[in-house]
């Protein structure tokens, strides 16, 4: 059954910023609020912003209650998670999506927000993996922010990626699924776990040890999540760590060796993840991936 897409935003719509994971102050969010207002949107700062419980944006109950209120409020047409870090898996099982299902709205973010993307996809709804408000004004990130705007407002997007020596050529069509590799592993076997069969998987991560990237890829492979993929996008693996005895492979080489076991097309170097070029992707939307000798193209169908 096709996934359900929330309606595009329109000028005058209200959007909420919440913290489902790490804390973010109003001062840190001020520039993003100004940008959203320049798009013609009205911004609501949820109760989980500008508060702190250790590293979190309030304790679990504050973050759960805020997300629930924004999901249930019919006036709110999109929810932007302020930043990632860690915390969304702690509250996801206490969220009731029944009212959201009657009137879906966009949920956007990345990193720890992979939990929400996977959970919503399992329920049959699309969401946006994209840059978060805390990163709206990082140097070199204007294109990423604009890709989020275009996606939220229903404008067409098409991504072209240069050739990479580890690409696997071919064409694939399928719904997009994925996000942060370590979060996808964490979700395995939970109520937020999602099927990858017949879909185009995208992966990214940050600060992971090389051996841990291999371990997580072994896990994905052993659980069958690579076997029936339609295609694979390999995004940024930022700041990989190594031990005193070198692991001997780059993140792309590690992932490539598992992808090579199968015949699906693979596009390395896709601009998604913890770097300034973090282009918005609609999780659950049907897309076509074409990987040729000259490079790769991803477009919605």
From TrEMBL:
Domain of life: Bacteria
Family annotation (InterPro entries): Carboxypeptidase_A_C_sf, Class_I_gatase-like, LdcA_N, Peptidase_S66_N, Peptidase_S66C, S66_fam
Gene3D superfamilies assigned: Class I glutamine amidotransferase-like, LD-carboxypeptidase A C-terminal domain-like
Domain LD-carboxypeptidase C-terminal: from-to ranges: 173-289
Domain LD-carboxypeptidase N-terminal: 15-130
SUPFAM superfamilies: Class I glutamine amidotransferase-like (SSF52317), LD-carboxypeptidase A C-terminal domain-like (SSF141986)
Entry keyword set: Carboxypeptidase, Hydrolase, Protease, Serine protease
Entry-linked Pfam families: Peptidase_S66, Peptidase_S66C
Family affiliation: Belongs to the peptidase S66 family.
Name under which the protein is recorded: LD-carboxypeptidase
Lineage: Bacteria, Pseudomonadati, Bacteroidota, Cytophagia, Cytophagales
